[in-house]
Amino acid sequence: MERLEEKLSGLSIARRSRPEEPTYLLDLAQQPAGLLAVSCSNFTIHLHNKDTLSLVGEYRGHGGPLCGVVFSHASPDLLYSGSADGTVRGWDVRRPGSEAAQLFKGEPSHSFSSFDLNCSDTLLCAGTEQVNEEDSYLVFWDARKPAGRLLGVYSESHSDDVTQVRFHPGDKDRLASSSTDGLVNVFDLSRGAEEEALLATCNSDSSVGAVCWTGAQYTQLLCLSHDEGLHLWDLASQNTDEPLTVFSTSDARSLALLPDGGGGVDYLVGGRWLEDAQKLLVVGGKNGGDLHLMECDDRGLRLLRSLQGGHAATVRCFLWDAAAETLVTGGEDAQLLLWKPGGEELTAAKRESMKSQSALRLKSRPHKKHGYQKEKKEA
Q: pLDDT value at position 363?
C-alpha cells in the first residue's frame, strides 16, 4: 500500500479541458497510442490527446443518451460506443467526424443502457432497459462482422434495466452483468444457452449501478449500488467453505473515512483493479467536486489521498494510467482534468472562475433508483 500511496501523493492538476458546449462527461476510454475518448450527455463522443487534453476530434450520430465507450484491444484505431437509441457503433479514430464504420442493432424495442467488448475483440454485448413489466435483455453480436450479425439474446436473468455488462479482462467467455433488479449475474458464454451459461447470481439487496472485475486473478467482483452501497465478492470461494462476501457496506456515505471527523463521501464514482500495485482503487467524491481515492479489501475502505480544488460538481468517470502514473477525471461541471505528479495547482482566481461555470445543470440520464421486483436467487 505504501507504494500506491506514494504514487497518489504527488498528484495535482496538470491539464484542464472544457468543451465549448456545456455537457456532462459520462465515460472515458483510453487508447494506448495516445487518445482519450469521452462520451458526453449531448450524445457526442469527443477525442482528446491524453497528454495535453486538447480536443482532436468529435463524433455525432447517436440519437439517444450514450451508455459508454471502449477501444478495441487488437485494433486500437477502432472505438465502440453504445446508446439508448438501440445501436452500438464502431468508429475509426483516424477519421474524426466520419460516419460510423460499424453498426450493431437489436430489436426496435431495445434501448441500450450498457455494453462491452470482450478481450479477444470477437464479441459485443449490450444490456437493455426494461422493455415491458418484467423483461430486459443481454444482446450479443459478432464484433468481427461489419454488418453486425446478431448472435443471440439472453432474456431470463434480469427483470429490470441492465446497468452494466463487463467482460472478464482475460477470459473472452466470462461476463458479469448488473441490474436495477438488485442482481449481479456471472456467465460462461462458452456453455451456450442462458440457463447453462449462468454460473452465479449475487444479490446486492439494492438497485445496482456498476460492477467490475477485480482481484489478483480477477476472481472478485466489485458491486456499487445506486444508494452508495459497496459489495466485494470472491467468486473463487463459491464451492468452498469460505464466505462469498469479502467486504460489504449498505451505505459508504456512513463510513468515517476522512481525518479529524471530516466524514466520508457523498457518492461513489467507481472502482478499478490496479494490476501493477495489486490493489483495488475505489474513487468517491463530495458533491462540491472534491475526490477521495480509496483502497478496498477485506478490511474495508481506507482513504489514500484526497484531491481538492479541481472539479466543481459531481465526478462521473475516471481513468488511471499505470504507465504514466496519471489520473484523468470527468464530470458534471463539463471539465476533463489530468492529474499527474508535479502538476501545477490552480490559483484561487482560477478556482473561482471554474466554479462560476458549475451552475450548469443539464438533463442527465440516471437509472431509476427503485428496489428490485422479483424474488432473488442466492449466490
A: 40
Task: Indicate whether 34 pLDDT > 90.
Answer: no
Instruction: Confirm or reject CATH 2.130.10.10 for domain 2-359, answering yes or no.
Output: yes
> Do β-strands 102-105 and 183-188 pair in parallel, antiparallel, or remain unpaired?
unpaired
Distance CA 85, CA 181 (A): 22
Q: How far is CA 231 from CA 69, 202, 250, 301, in A?
A: 25, 10, 8, 11
Let me know the angle formed at the C-alpha of 122 by 118 and 126, rounded to the nearest 5 degrees: 55
> Can you give the pLDDT at residue 111?
96
**pLDDT at residue 360 tops 50:** no
Cβ burial 97-118 (10 Å sphere, 16+ → b, else e): eeebebebbbeeebbbbbbbbb
Q: How many CB atoms lie within 10 A of CB 223?
A: 26
Whole-structure pTM value? 0.89
Provide the residue type at 356 as one letter: S
Domain locations along the chain: 2-359
Sign of CA dihedral 178, 65, 288, 294: positive
List residues bridging with 369 in a β-sheet. Answer: none
C-alpha cell recorded at residue 169: 479482462
Burial status of residue 17 (CB atoms within 10 A of its CB: 0-12, 13-18, 19 or more): buried
Nearest to 57 by CA among 69, 66, 48, 67: 48
Confidence check: pLDDT of 369 > 60: no
Please tell me the distance from the alpha carbon of residue 3 to that of residue 164, in angstroms, as a whole number. 31
Cα(185)–Cα(191) distance, rounded to whole angstroms?
15
Coil, strand or helix at 210: strand
Give me the numbers of helices (H) and strands (E) for the chain, helices first please. Answer: 3, 28
Query: What digits encode the pLDDT tens for the residues 1-27?
Result: 458 888 899 999 999 998 777 899 999
Q: What is the pLDDT of residues 54-97, one digit of tens each?
A: 999 999 999 999 999 999 999 999 999 999 999 999 999 999 99
Instruction: Determine the Cα–Cα distance for residues 166 and 48; give it in Å rounded to an integer.
Output: 24
Of 372, 333, 379, 336, give the one whose Cα is nearest residue 354. Answer: 333
**204/181 Cα distance (integer angstroms):** 9
Q: How far apart are CA 255 and CA 229, in angstroms?
A: 11
